[in-house]
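FAQ

Q: What does a record look like?
A: Structure on top, sequence underneath. For example:
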């Protein structure tokens, strides 16, 4: 059943591999959106998969409950699928708000009583599940379990996934039709994987990843966020495959790509695609002709015509000569490979010096015990901005602050040194997996830096502790 469900979800593009961040801020290697089952046949099939899982788990219950809004159609489809197997079950859903007219009330469907099985697509923030528990408990009914489509293994607090957190809190079994194990099992019969960096790091953390497991694979592609050169090289070492990294945007589609045939260079997004022009410009809009960092601008048939009904925004970002201002900063190698060094809005200006966060992050990410990092600026009365670096420790790692500072001192100019470090369990990301530095700036803007620049060694750093 699991393999059939994966193929079904992939065909409908409901299941996507990549580096996603849920609305709760947890990182996930894949994305699942039940709302994309948007026709009668696919909803019927989805109900049948759920029904099969419920029967397989031998769950005893009296009523299906689906949280608003996606759960409303889902419980109906499952009830129909169960009835086709000779099992007639009642179902209910909740509204998002109480209605005081027409049918009225909070509940749609059968009265809530007896043993209740909650149905959902995924558990992310767990908000709809918590609301369901509150509603069902108010009717003094018994919740016997939860069934979802996929366990995305998002990292939650205390390193628990979202599903593990729900189980820990409510002690109610959560069953999923598929999980990470099923995804791993599907790799030997697959030929192409389009993902983003976190998905590749998750695969590298799984001991089952090997050259034998991916022997049937033709190509691995990465995009949406920069792939660390270290991740690229480790993946090649483990699998024999070199990831093809590329660069695109909603407004432009694909702009550059490492070649299918040719050198796939770690740390770069390749060369401009045929028919696409890519140039770098200075703050004043002048062309950058040397190896300096500049604003990436793109022109070609791939570039959009403008933002719908937003002429002012279009004029700001689309030049008269057709070049689109991406907002990304990059640099070209002598042979034309483009590297992205960050976003213009993330540029740190401290004491009159321009500091590119990626330069700091590359140094920190090379340090043993640091899994990933993010450098950003916060307001400072003396320098305009002070540099802060958020670091995520590798599992079970003990960070030696003196060693970190020694590496920074050796490899970076003095004005590029972070004023302080913040140890966090994970970096905030948006739905495309990109680090939200605006969230970090807001979080730490009001936090006073320690006096001076001395960093005291600690035996073990706890999350959110200032070094």
């Amino acid at each position: 059943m699991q393999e059939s469900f994966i193929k079904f979800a992939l065909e409908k593009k409901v299941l996507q591999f990549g580096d996603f961040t849920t609305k709760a801020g947890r990182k996930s290697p894949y994305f699942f959106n039940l709302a994309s089952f948007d026709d009668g046949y696919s909803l019927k099939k989805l109900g049948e998969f759920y029904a099969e899982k419920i029967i397989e788990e031998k769950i005893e219950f009296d009523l299906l409950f689906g949280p608003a809004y996606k759960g409303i159609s889902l419980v109906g489809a499952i009830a129909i699928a169960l009835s086709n197997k000779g099992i007639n079950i009642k179902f209910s859903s909740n509204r998002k708000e109480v209605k005081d007219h027409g049918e009225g009330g909070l509940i749609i469907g059968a009265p809530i009583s007896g043993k209740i099985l909650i149905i959902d697509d995924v558990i992310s923030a767990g908000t709809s599940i918590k609301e369901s528990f509150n509603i069902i408990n108010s009717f003094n009914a018994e919740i016997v379990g939860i069934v979802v489509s996929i366990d995305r293994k998002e990292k939650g607090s205390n390193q628990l996934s979202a599903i593990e957190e729900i189980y820990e809190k409510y002690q109610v079994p959560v069953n999923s039709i598929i999980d990470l194990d099923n995804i791993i099992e599907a790799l030997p019969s697959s030929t192409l994987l389009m993902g983003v960096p976190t998905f590749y790091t998750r695969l590298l953390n799984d001991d089952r990843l090997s050259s034998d497991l991916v022997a049937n694979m033709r190509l691995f592609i990465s995009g949406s966020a920069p792939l660390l050169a270290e991740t690229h090289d480790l993946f090649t070492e483990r699998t024999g495959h070199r990831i093809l990294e590329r660069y695109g945007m909603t407004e432009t589609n694909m702009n550059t790509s490492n070649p299918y045939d040719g050198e796939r260079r770690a740390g770069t997004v390749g060369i401009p695609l045929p028919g696409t022009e890519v140039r770098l410009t200075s703050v004043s809009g002048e062309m950058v002709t040397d190896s300096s960092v500049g604003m990436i601008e793109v022109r070609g048939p791939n570039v959009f015509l403008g933002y719908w009904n937003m002429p002012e925004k279009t004029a700001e970002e689309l030049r008269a000569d057709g070049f689109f201002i991406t907002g990304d900063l990059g640099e070209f190698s002598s042979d034309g490979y483009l590297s992205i060094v960050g976003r213009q809005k993330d540029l740190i200006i401290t004491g009159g010096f321009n500091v590119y966060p990626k330069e700091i992050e590359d140094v920190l990410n090379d340090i043993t015990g640091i899994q990933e990092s993010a450098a950003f600026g916060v307001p400072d009365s003396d320098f305009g901005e002070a540099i802060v670096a958020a670091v995520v420790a590798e599992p079970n790692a003990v960070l030696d602050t003196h060693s970190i500072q020694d590496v920074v001192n050796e490899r970076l100019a003095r004005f590029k040194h972070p004023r302080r470090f913040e140890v966090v369990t994970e970096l905030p990301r948006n739905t495309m997996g990109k680090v939200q530095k605006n969230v970090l700036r807001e979080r730490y803007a009001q936090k006073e830096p320690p006096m001076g620049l001395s960093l005291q060694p600690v035996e073990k750093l706890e999350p959110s502790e200032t070094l």
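Q: Is there anything notable about this one?
A: The two ends are 50 Å apart (CA to CA).
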